[in-house]
Amino acid sequence: MNGTAVRVLGAATAAYSAAIMIRPRWLGRPCGLTGPDGDVPTSTALLIRAVGARDLAVGTAMLLASGPSARRTATACRVAADLSDAALFGTLLPDAGRRPKIAGFAAAWGALCAAAAAAESRG
């Protein structure tokens, strides 16, 4: 394969990451990290934006990597970030009922990225 799937996943990661940096509630609401008024508290928004900045950088690296080795490295960083998110959100979100869904989404995205990288390596 020519890395198209990794690039597409990188672009999607970068786009969503930019979106949560602009509107932290797009991550805060599903995670149950909003206040009683439905807004994300300022300190929580800061951390969501930091996660977004990390993921924007990694997604952009996946998208723009110049060769298979660089794409594998960028994708490995994406997978590591997703697995750590799955572990942390899956155990520490304040609303225990949301933990499995959020952790599952993060783990699934990491698995999808890993599968795309593996397919490129085989191709």
Structure explained in plain terms:
The protein is an all-alpha fold and 123 residues long. It has one domain (4-122). The chain contains five helices and no strands. The chain has helices spanning 4-22, 25-31, 42-64, 68-92, 99-122. Helix 3 (42-64) runs antiparallel to helix 4 (68-92). It starts with a helix and ends with a helix. It comes from Streptomyces parvulus. This is DUF4267 domain-containing protein.
Number of helices: 5
The backbone outline, from C-alpha atoms, is elongated
Specify the structural class: mainly alpha
Distance between the termini: 4 Å
Strand content: under 5%
The pLDDT mean sits at: 96
Profile the largest sheet. none
Secondary-structure element string: HHHHH
Uncertain ranges: none
Overall number of domains? 1
Radius of gyration based on Cα positions: 15 Å
Organism: Streptomyces parvulus
Protein name: DUF4267 domain-containing protein
